[in-house]
Design a protein that fits this description.
Number of helices: 14
Helix content: 40-55%
Strand content: 5-15%
Largest sheet: 7 strands, mixed
CATH architecture of the largest domain: 3-Layer(aba) Sandwich
Shape: globular
Distance between the termini: 48 Å
Number of domains: 2
CATH superfamily of the largest domain: Type I PLP-dependent aspartate aminotransferase-like (Major domain)
Radius of gyration: 21 Å
Number of strands: 12
Structural class: alpha/beta
Order of helices and strands: HHEHHEHEHEHEHEEEHHHEHEEEHH
CATH topology of the largest domain: Aspartate Aminotransferase, domain 2
């Protein structure tokens, strides 16, 4: 007897390559010892939260004698948190935001799901550049939508505006971009985003309904070599920004994020009311009270990003020594190198696995021929992996 829907049963069979490799790593660590397995599979930030988080937690603990200290609040979040977020996001996005234009969500994932629930009709399409975060297809499919990837440019992963234009059609409801990008580390340039916004304005007019521009920005804080993540809200009235504090405050398990809308959006109040309602009816109800209170106290703080910069440089040295071609990431904590010798990415990931190196095939991110490495692990692990990468690359060329 069938206990699962056909859709979920099919998704389980395909499974996430990230989780699959992570679980393979657990088994290998049992066999070979954790110190002999080089796990670059999961983008799980390992840096401790900044001191402001600990201070906030102690203050929260001291306040628990107050009535409803951790009780319900408005579905969009504590008003004082929304106001503080509006000020911070307004600074980042170079536009004036009011608290009513921001809602607090259960991570960026909660923000995106609430948004798609609010705007998608069954059969609507959401276009995104590939490579893309693996869960986008599920977030869109949850509400009857279809994800349509458009490949970015080879190796650099800059936006290919012609490919995006070809993917946008009469059923397109949104285009989602992720910069700095997971898995490639690309940071999209201001000129590229402006061209995309102009394209969406033209196509929205032709389609007779707006095409939203969605910017997923959990890695905005993490760039290298003076790279800048351009503000996107001022580019186009139907723009929304989603983000989280999983990485920059080390709060991945606390699930606190946000959705902010362009103040120039027509019918903005109705849009925010709709997303606030979907935030509730999807079962999130509201973002965690503790996480929101931490955020209010720690906003503006962050982890030590110089640690990630040193790890990036170490991983670049390892890949260069192994003769593996890559583009140096401009942001986030991922490399997305090319599989050596034109090898199938899944085959090369298996060669890495034979050397106890855990990576993720690019096919899982909609971009075959490449593979992802998450360097949010200690530098010693990265440096000790060099011989294993060299042996796997040599086997690929052989």
């Amino acid at each position: 007897m069938q206990v699962l829907s056909k859709q979920i049963a099919g998704m389980l069979q395909q499974s996430s390559w990230i989780r699959r490799m992570f679980e393979a790593g657990i088994e290998r660590k049992k066999i070979y010892g954790a110190e002999n397995v080089f796990d670059f599979s999961l983008g799980n930030p390992d840096l401790p939260p900044p001191a402001a988080v600990g201070t906030a937690l102690r203050e929260i603990a001291d306040s628990l004698g107050q009535p409803s200290a951790l009780g319900y609040m408005p579905n969009g979040g504590y008003p004082q948190v929304r106001a503080a977020l509006a000020r911070e996001l307004g600074r980042e996005q170079e536009c004036e935001l009011a608290a009513e234009q921001v809602i607090v969500t259960c991570g960026a994932a909660g923000a995106l799901n609430a948004f798609f629930r609010a705007v998608l009709e069954p059969g609507d399409e959401v276009v995104c550049p590939a490579p893309y975060f693996v869960e986008y297809g599920s977030y869109v499919g949850n509400f009857g939508g279809v994800l349509k990837p458009a490949p970015a440019r080879e190796l650099t992963f800059d936006l290919d505006l012609a490919a995006l234009a070809a993917a946008i059609g009469p059923r397109t409801r949104a285009v989602i971009v992720n910069s700095p990008n997971n898995p490639s580390g690309a940071v999209y340039a201001a000129g590229e985003l402006a061209e995309l916004a102009a394209l969406l304005a033209k196509r929205s007019q032709a389609n007779g309904r707006p095409i939203f521009l969605v910017s997923d920005e959990p890695y905005r804080f993490l760039t290298y070599d003076d790279a800048v993540v351009p503000p996107i809200l001022p580019l186009y009235p139907y723009t929304v920004v989603a983000g989280s504090f999983s990485k920059n405050l080390g709060l991945a398990g606390e699930r606190v994020g946000y959705l902010a809308a362009s103040p120039a959006m027509p019918d903005l109040a109705a849009f925010m009311a709709g997303v606030t309602m979907t935030n509730r009816i999807l079962g999130f109800v509201n973002a965690p009270a503790i996480g929101q209170r931490i955020l209010l106290a720690a906003l503006g703080s962050g982890v030590d990003v110089s640690v990630y910069a040193r790890r990036r440089d170490a991983m670049a040295r390892v890949l260069t020594a192994a003769g593996i071609e890559f583009s140096l990431p401009k942001g986030a904590f991922y490399f997305f190198p090319k599989a050596p010798a034109g090898l199938d990415d899944k085959v090369f990931v298996d060669l890495l696995l034979a050397e106890n190196v855990l990576g993720v095939p690019g096919s899982g991110f909609g971009y075959p021929g490449y593979f992802r490495l998450a360097f949010c692990t200690d530098q010693d692990t990265i440096e000790r992996s060099a011989p294993a990468f060299a042996r796997a690359a040599a086997a690929a060329r052989a």
